[in-house]
Amino acid sequence: MSDENPVRQSRRSENAEMRQIRQERRAARLARRRGEVPNSDEFEVRLAKALSTPTSVRLTPLWLVFGAKALGMKLDGQLADGLAVETSPLLTERAAKLADSHGRRRLADNWLRLLDPDYQAPSRFDLQVPINQRMIFACDAELRLLAETLTRAVVAVRGVAMANLLLTDGAGPVYNPANPHDLGTLLGDVIRSLDPNYTHRGESWWRRS
Fold this sequence. Notes:
Elements: H1 6-33, H2 41-51, H3 55-58, H4 62-70, H5 72-80, H6 89-99, H7 101-113, H8 133-138, H9 140-150, H10 157-168, H11 183-194
């Protein structure tokens, strides 16, 4: 039995895992430069697991953490449009934040909160945008499935970014009754990005890269 300090053993294991993660990302960048886009299911699973590594383990520089937070919506848009997470350190950091299981649980809870019958629309003095209750309640099943899918062990980061953008878009169909896009179709697009096995009726709206 080894007499090595348990803390040192844990750090040694974490460092080995991080070396593997860096190798995965480096291999992905090289493959893309050669025009060999890694799109296999196996690669997606490995990448999702790598991105879910806790920030405390990854020892991320503070400038990167704050930068990814400040540019969150812009980076979410890039991820939602299919830009590879290894394109830039900021995009990788934002993807890791989105992949965090606790953050995904909060996002799912925020979606479910819209279905609460006691949820009160804000007053005219409230800066919060009122929700489009008719559209929300009409998409009850899709919304609950989205929340359930967000909390699964491994999901595609692109789908999480799409879910976050849709929920925070004040001009989107979640809030704006005049928005021409069907919320059920958008929710289906998000769920399908999270779970490729999901199928839904209607034409896909989300822009593809």
